[in-house]
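Supplementary Text 2. Reproducibility record for the structural model of the 755-residue chain.

All settings were left at their defaults, and a single model was retained for analysis rather than an ensemble. We include the record here because the model underlies the residue-level annotations in Supplementary Table 4.
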Amino acid sequence: MTKNNTQSTTLLDLNLEPFYERYYSEDTAYGVYVCYNLDTEVKSEDYFGFGSTTSFQEVTIVGNFPRLTIGKKYTAKGEIVFHKQYGEQVKIHSIFSPESNTQTDEQEFIRFLVTDLQFKNILKIYPMPVTAIMDGTFNYKKVKGFGQKNYTLLKTKVESNYNNMKAMSVLGGYGLKFNIIKRLVKTYGSADLAIQKVMDNPYLLYTEVDGIGFKKADQIAQAIGFDFHSPKRILAGIMYSIELQESKGNTYGLISNIKQNAEDILNLEIENVDEFLDSLDFYVDKENNIIALKKTWQCEKDIAEELHRLNGAETTLLFPEEEIYKYINEIQQELGIEYTDEQKLLFHEVNRSNLIMLTGFAGVGKTFTLNGCLKMLDKKIKDVSLAAPTAKAAKVIENSTGRKASTIHRLLYWSPDGFIYNKENQLDAEIVIIDEISMCDIWLFRSLIKAIPDGCKLILVGDPAQLESVATGNVLHDIINSKCFPVIKLQTVFRQALKSGILSSATDVRQGIKPYDSKSESLELGATKDCRLWFGEKTDTAKRIAMIYKSCLKKWSVDNIMTIVPMHKGQSGVNELNSILQAIANPQDGTKNELILNSRMFREGDRVGHTKNDYLANWLDKNYEYVGIDGVFNGDTGIIREINTSERLIYVDYGDKIIEYNSGNFDQLQLSYVITCHRSQGSQSPVVIMGIDISAYMNLKRSLVYTSITRASQQLFIVAERKALSMAIHNNALVLKKTFLCDLLINYKKDFTTA
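Retained model, structure tokens:
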């Protein structure tokens, strides 16, 4: 596999004075100006560090920036472009006026870069701190508790963010965070234009800026004094109502429900909803009362087309059918096993089909069968790519197959500009196997299948009995229910698997049977006694989990113990239990730095998890030196290696990289001694401690218990309130997601066959 070549782009440093406005649009902020070049020689530097110089007296600049003032001086960065009609121009990347800063600008700017105590001490000596730093008169020795290391770091931050000062002064007052403001300035090219955009329509923060939700944008809008009944606010409210549906896994909602929810969110009545339904942002089917975000509908439509493309591509039998039987017999003799007829079907289907779905429950031998199939494919295929939606799931399939596996993000090579492998630059692979496909949202799945070339075989693996994913869409079930592609369903649970208390309990629970019949408070299940069960009252759950956890640490490491509960809140929820288990696994010994974030204590040595995909995280090496940009993704877990209490920084080691956390991304970090069942999906651990009581009443269902049980590979401990566990096992309610994909797949096939 090879990556695309990077092309060199030359950036010019310019000092300009506009003298003629050729064109400017207030709506798009696009302008064309003719300017004097105030330098006799224009300095330039390309991305690879090779300097050069270019000279000219006048220059035409184009791009998105605020309206410029004729005769005013500006500093800019841009690249030379050539227009067919107008010739050589400079496309502006950023532009600002280096006019004098106010005291307020400087103080608000510095507030973003230091701690509260440092801020107060600096202002006592330097009321214009930025000016003092830039002109070299800042003496850090005069500032209480401010050493040379602090000053060097502050100076670097001031110099690298100087162009953002005005935006930080204005927008920071409305509660926008440092990283968000930097992103705004970078997106719009200047601080002035970023301010102008936010003031004209603060809801652009919600629709165009990652990390700003509707509620935050609405709060900022009200602080600015934006019209409460503005159509821009109503449109954003409808979009947010649809996104709330997406957060539950749905890809569309009913128009009547979306309207009612939007009215509740906005606290007003939407009288002319049809006017908003015509927005280009929405896909609307009035006949069926359906509304969705246009981009979401398009995503599922793309998936349907891409799956049929892969399935319909020309395929050649890898082996003559008679050889398949020979290879199956050879593998059976080598391993001393015998495949069932349904397992043998996978060997034949992989040979003759391009797209195969492999499903099955715990104990039916999905991986066992897949491994045998891979042995056969090794005779003809060299490039097999294995991947899964999360790092934990990738590790599981890597361990079970003995072959290198990665996340889907790693397979497609994420870069700041998007995935390197895509529709135009597809993977060089003959077979792609994706495990835990039920966890994959529609956005990632679309990126994946677009990057798979015609003729490449795609095998999707999943367990339909697991807890429904919270990801947008229903990829696994929609593909199965469409009946458009071959599905291999493994249903026979092996006798040796049933000797395990873990697997026999999982099988019973999946069938709605309680794996116990005794009224004892403590039980051992299975011939191998690898499942232990304690019953007690709700008030005893947390205490019992803590006792078991402490006992397990005598035999297993922290990394080999997973504690799972249904909810975040409550005495036996993730939040409280994380604090309890933290004190057991990583107590304060007087040498570890600590930091309190959102009322939660973080300590050096803590096990933590990342909660949101961050494609542009700064990657550091073991010496905390900057290496580059590398993604850290939802579900990744690591260890806190260092906490800088004075700068309020946390450094988390993810094994192959260290990521710095600051005020801009603290909300993406949480303790992970205890996790919810949803967050445990795709992962596996030698030891699992499962807690369940009536406080999780709304979440008690069979798939939750089954998923929790099947995370354990060696030992399972269940701490339960008897009533709660019984209710969960007998509740087989399924969440029926509202999605387009199944119908799109079916209709595409009909259209194709009748064309």
